[in-house]
Amino acid sequence: CEEGTYKPFAGDSDCNGCPNNSYSASPGAVSCQCLSGYYRAPHEDITVRCTAPPSSPQNLTNTSVTKTNISIAWLEPTYNGGRTDLYYVISIKSSTNVIEYSTGHTNYTLMGLTPFTTYEIQVIARNGVSDQDNANDNNRTVTITVTTLNSMTNLPSTETPQLLSLTLMIGAPVVLVLVLCVCIIIVFVIVIIVRRNRKKRLVNLDLSFVG
Asked: What stretches pass through the bilayer (predicted)?
């Protein structure tokens, strides 16, 4: 077989062209080697084309944050390496430890976190040949930093109007009772003053008659 082709067994069969992203450097090759940066998965034979690891995920963002959970989402890589077995490794790092998860989806919720703690979150795109090129994982990684809420601020937005409504429902009658009490006291004071003045005038009138 000439250069650029191969034949795995001796005989009269035709030579095969090298699969995509592979080559045979000399005539009479029994297989084709992958080009630099391309690989075959361990279970794939010499007839399978060579493929590459994917590029990095796109637009990693946090979609929701509570005191113990962080939800994240991202877009698929622009280049999947020519494979369909794409998956993601999520690494979450705090000041004390690092935990890894894997998923085939483009979103994930990290649970059981510590309130008011800053986490560095990395998402790496991988496929069936990524293990053969681990040295370049940093080129396929996106990172964000997220701080969980503290326990005092983690109130759902629906609770604030309810709390305000409850406060108004309880406070309005109390204010009304206080106003009514103040009015009664004022009336009572006025009545006492009027009675005292009237009594004083009657005393003065009696004295004038006596004189």
From this structure: 163-194
Task: Report how many domains make up the chain.
Answer: 3
Residues in the chain: 211
Find, among 55, 59, 121, the residue nearest to 83 by Cα. 55
CA distance 25 to 50: 16
Question: In this structure, are residues 179 and 171 in contact, taking their beta carbons and an 8 Å threshold?
Answer: no
How far apart (Å, rounded) are the C-alpha atoms in residues 200 and 51? 112
Amino acid residing at 183: C
Segment (H or E) for 77: none
Sheet with 107-110, side-by-side order of all strands: 58-65, 70-75, 107-110
The CA-atom distances, in angstroms, between 152 and each of 9, 156, 160, 174 are: 72, 11, 13, 28
Burial class (CB in 10 A: 0-12, 13-18, 19+), 32: buried
- Identify any residues that bridge with 78 across adjacent strands, giving them in sequence order: none
The β-bridge partners of 197 are none
Checking if the pLDDT of 179 tops 80, the result is no
Based on the domain organization, do 36 and 70 belong to the same domain? no
Q: In terms of residue numbers, what domain contains 41?
A: 1-50
pLDDT in tens, 44-92: 999 999 999 999 999 999 999 999 999 999 999 999 999 999 999 999 9
- CATH code at position 19: 2.10.50.10
Instruction: Count the Cβ atoms, other than its own, within 10 Å of residue 208.
Output: 8
For residues 62 and 124, membership in a common domain is answered with yes
DSSP 3-15: TTEE-SS-SSSPP
